[in-house]
Amino acid sequence: MASANTDQRVVAPGPSATAARIPKQRTRKRRRHKHNRAAYAFLAPWLIGLFGLTLFPMAYSLYLSFTNYGLLSAPKWIGLENFRLLFQDPNFWQSVRVTFEYVVFSVPLKLGAALAVAVLLNKKIKGLGFYRSAFYLPSLLGASVAVAVMWQQVFSQQGLLNEFLGVFGIHGQDWIGQPSTALWTLILLAGWQFGTPMLIFLAGLKQLPKDVYEAASLDGSGPLRTFFTITLPLLSPMIFFNLVLETINAFQTFTPAYVVSNGLGGPVGSTLLYTLYLYQKGFGSLQMGYASAMAWLLFLVIGLFTALYFATARKWVTYGD
Amino acid sequence: MSELSRRGFFGLGAGAAALAMAGCSDFTASTSSSGASSGSSGGSLVFRWWGGTSRNEAYQSALKVFTKKTGIKVTAQYSGYNGYFDKLNTEFAGGTPPDVFQMDTALTSTYAAKGVLTDLSTYIPGTIQLSTLFPALRGAGVVKGVNYGVASGSGYAPVLYNETVLNKLKIALPENSWTWDDFSTITNEVAKAWGSGKYGANDASGDDSGALQPWLRQRGKDLYTSSGELGFDATDLGDWWNYWAGLRKTGACVPADLVANYGNADSTNPFVAGSAALTTGWGLAQIAPLMTATLGEIIVPRGANGKTGQALNGGVLLVIPTKSSNPTGAAKLIDFFLTDKDAIKIMGTQRGLPPSSLAETELLPTLSASAKLDVTYGDYVNQQVAADALADAPSAPPGYGDVKTALGNVSSAVAFGKQSVSAGVSSFFSQAKTILAQAAA
């Protein structure tokens, strides 16, 4: 996507410049310092936020993860005890299982839906702006409590879904009350909120060079083949970007599980997402040290996944130049 | 929310919606009236509670009277029960708890162990007059000999039954002498006569204070020992869960996916929805307004030895954090709710049955029919408990809340068949022991 060559090579200074070089550099340096000061002043709000609200709390939670901290009394250093207890905690492993299941199914579902709708919206159809907004709407409502409450209504025993099934004489069950289906309602909710990756895909699709498609159609390539051999490879940087972001998001999902299960992660721990259990431990059971240890494990796992994606990216992400 | 039974009984009531969203929606309203008659400012207070709509309204009108009488401005903060203690914990950690707040009796020891509650002995009897408080309730806020809180109501969790349905099905109403065998017979009859999708009773296999505790006490056990360990063993819990597994098999109690709805005071509760005819763990005054059917109230089934096993609980307590900025004002507020006739009338039975002789004489003439039935029932159980001649139930140890959650989770897993009764029992005991050991450390 590089435009015409407009670079201007910097011309090396002639010999006459060397004499005045030293004092000039000094003033320039001083001026640069002044410039920097102004820049830092403008950056200050962000820097304060970064250090005060992100880095310091992170460092402090790392410290807390090695302590017994009941929130109401001073933290007590206990070394790796929290981690030892964690690995023996059946609820911890339950939350890990549930979270992996959630991530593994919700991310591909969401990205698939996003890509499919983006391709549809890339056609020249009437009222495109309306459709785009309509499809984006669920994501605007995103992590909101209202949507999760609505979800609860849709999938409950007397919910919308069962009303609908009833029309065909199918006797539905309480989808949220059953351990085998409760998590799937959350996965479906995640899939439905595909708006953000959809917009990114759409922006990517609009950028794809037309001439490649023209050449393909001249060579007699059908729409399916064009999609798999041209669109997908050209779009791979966007897919990569969305995959990384959505995986991180999925690992950190909290609100829908909290609302749908009334904060309990039930039935039978089937919606006990990792962050929900972390929250229960930290704020419900007053085990903030334990919760901090959990938070750091999650941080490491997310880091690991991201690293893995980047390591494999070379094999399947193509940058079109 | 099955762990809410005891609180539910005391009028937590009012809407799972309020409960479900409590974490994100709590209300702060200043009910202070600046035109206090005394003119001199008595300082100010932040007072926090949880409750349903009717309790919130009662508290707010009572606070207006308090401000008028004492000149102390009160900032009222309230929410549902869900998330209430999470928020409180965060504020305790930040060193800015409210000046006085409503406490769950069973959690008092957890907070007392952290040393964040004020010993009220300096205010008794100077500011807080306990003389009319029923003696049985004076120990409700006491942990290891120190009084941290004052009870606001009392009660015993009954069994409620849907009289309309039982009459329609021509099934005899339960009688005061009934046992757990009778409970099984009646619920089975109901299930058989009522048809598909209808059940005899709510599943109380995870209801610790409304059902399991009386059942254990009938066997001479209890939820906890006085030293804070579990007061029952694997055989007890196994028998309990097998009893409910039997009811579940025949449809005498609701299927597993409805177990959790037992704690909701709304139409998702099978009893309220009219798909179960009996329930434990709820007070009549909280459920009756939600239903059109005629409801009856009866003592929890007795043991084979005729004992009721019921244990009196103190409803909600009012406590003062050690970091309260106005402990004297807070103590005055506690006394106000206990001894002021206006306050007693305004609060009614919103926080349980009248806790003092004063409240009883003030309230009895004005109570609603269902509240009156609650009081009569309370009087009856009082006599029966005396006849039991059992020791008082030891107060719940630190970690109580988590053990209760574990009990709810495992009984649900057993109900779903995810775990056998014996596997569930060993899972519960290992979890509970870890929790109690950690909380005591």
TrEMBL record, chain A:
Record organism: Actinospica acidithermotolerans
Location(s) in or outside the cell: Cell membrane
Region (Disordered): 1-33
Pfam family, one: BPD_transp_1
Superkingdom to which the source organism belongs: Bacteria
SUPFAM superfamilies, per database record: MalF N-terminal region-like (SSF160964), MetI-like (SSF161098)
Protein name: Sugar ABC transporter permease
A GO cellular component entry from the record: plasma membrane
All residue ranges annotated as the ABC transmembrane type-1 domain in the record: 96-309
Alphabetical GO biological process terms: transmembrane transport
Record CDD domains: TM_PBP2
From TrEMBL, chain B:
Domain of life: Bacteria
Pfam assignment, any one: SBP_bac_8
Entry-linked PANTHER family: ABC TRANSPORTER SUBSTRATE-BINDING PROTEIN, ARABINOSE-BINDING PROTEIN-RELATED
Name of the protein this chain belongs to: Extracellular solute-binding protein
